[in-house]
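Reopening this ticket.

The earlier resolution said the output was attached, but the attachment link was broken on my side. Pasting everything inline this time so it's all in one place.
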Amino acid sequence: MTIDMAQFHQVFFEESFEGLEIMESGLLDMDHGVVDDEVINSIFRAAHSIKGGSGTFGFNEVSEFTHVVETLLDEMRDGTREVTTEAVAALLGSVDVIRNLLVAARDGAEVDEILVKAKYDDLQGMLGATSSEQEQPSVVAQAPPSDPSDPTTLGWHIVFTPLDHLCRTGNDPLRIIRELSGLGELQVGVDISGIPELSKMEPETCYMSWDMRLKGDVPRADVDEVFDWVEDDCDLVVMPILSDEELQQPETNAAGIEEAIEQPLVERRQEGRRKEERRSPLDRRGSDRRAGASMIGSSSIRVDIEKVDSLINMVGELVITQSMLSLVGEDFTMDRIDRLLDGLDQLERHTRDLQESVMLIRMLPISFAFNRFPRMVHDLGVKLGKQVELNMSGESTEVDKTVIEKIGDPLVHLVRNSLDHGIELPQQRLAAGKPETGNIELNAMHKGGNIIIEIRDDGKGLVVEHILEKAIEQGIASPDQEYSDQQVYEFIFQPGFSTTNSVSETSGRGVGMDVVRRNINELGGSIVIDSETGEGTVFTIRLPLTLAILDGQIISVGSETYIMPLVSIIESFQIRPEMVNMVAGKGETVKLRDEYIPIIRLHEIFGIKDAKTVDLCSGLLVVVEGDGRRSGLFVDDLIGQQQVVIKSLEDNYQQIDGISGATILGDGSVALILDVPGIFHLASGRELNGDYAAERADQLADSAVGSGDYV
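Inline output:
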């Protein structure tokens, strides 16, 4: 039976990408001139696994390139090559090439052969002419070397005994045997004496060993290269065959040649287990992430078995409750009403638990979004001539997979801005009395049912006067109006705004910050800036934990029902006549604690003709915040709070301004979910249209609220 290896490709690619992250992280942590055994071994193992897996699945370009990288790492590992800035830079560039090769292999795309060859030649140049001698792997109990050109050598006698954990490292003994058979005529004997009875067998443990004879004029180096992938995961004896009798000798039980091994087999297996326990934190981090919930591709998730077990348990409880309710419903009489109510309570509780369990499956650590930044900060710092240290905290904070996928680009832009605009050059920092190495912090935490992400730097901060001057120059601020610091910071998010006079590769075109805010708004989040000149800047992003469920306030306007996200609501109250004013540039406003807040009448924005209240003093005002500004939404009534499941309007109908989605309420009716920034945009367009302000002033003058001030 032929096994379709393509079914394993997805797992291979994602584990390879995880391995590249381990390599990249380890290389960035390496101290130049010092070889840290744990770090270099974890990097080597990651490269080793990628090479072995790519060879198994036939991705030869990946395997061949990674082999050269592995050789360079091996020289660092055994101390024959010093860890230098040039070597680390070359290896980081090689990680990029391997990533591109893997992406091309996964997507069936073309490979940039010129780039691959250039990096390959660079690595070969670093290895030098003697590299081929250094590639010889050291094997356990290796017999004295024999000259491959010796005419008396007829082949090789190979005893291959995998350690228990070999299969758990992603290696396949049969693949190794197939590789050997490609070198010459191979005679194979297998020892199955170590296989236990079925009830005691562990599926991932290797119990067999092989006694093989390879006939032909095969260089010893070629044999060693086949086992190079598993040198730390097996006992290996390779001896030259010098006579025809040895070639014809019956296969022996591999357990009978333990004397040929310097360490007893039992001790070697114990040493193998000890190696597994001594794996570096970087190795364990990779394994832990693979064991837990992790994102693999854009359309699938690998889930911790504990989360699956919890979900199955919840479904079981739900089935039991359903069966109980079915029995209660048979020949129902009023004396069963208590049992019915108990069953409904259980159903509600189990449904809620089931919902939480399902949502946990989609939750992934924010480290999936953070992992790209150490490399990015390193490379950009070198390019800009700045010394920067990146500190990350809260990487284990879990958030919905969709949020992680969509927050990546905004975070990249903000971190680049902090490095480019915030952090000063070393000489400038020293002149300002700061350490020459700047600091950027990337923090994540849960707070109030949301996730908070902070991008903090200790750079020069934002200069309010400079930003305001540029905003006036570009016509987005009035020279006659006074602005608070927060209002000035808001100009940064205007399309096309830039404080940089020159355009560089990283900034100056005024493209990006408006997109950052738009992307964050689309996630139902918000972004706030706090800065102190000369001390630094903090960008604070608030996001929902999931995009599938929303805590909302149900409001009514006429016969329509809407859902207002609770995270957007500041407060709600009933207006008194003296609170209403007309303010130049803002239109109809309400004065609340010395602040004039614009009023938006939802029934006018959405064209609702049967609104129950038109007089401001008869309805309610809900103060909401979005895009860094506040407004009051005038509604008929507040019905209650409810957690709702979000349904996409764009997928099922079309995109509508001011509406972010829809949900189905308990009575089966559909309620639209309001998009606060979108409503602000609709209201701004309405105010700019015709004589809206004059019309509203006339209405106010004729109504009971006309006693309000006009400013």
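Reporter confirms the inline version is readable. The two ends are 85 Å apart (CA to CA). The chain has five domains: 5-134, 155-271, 301-365, 367-544, 549-707.
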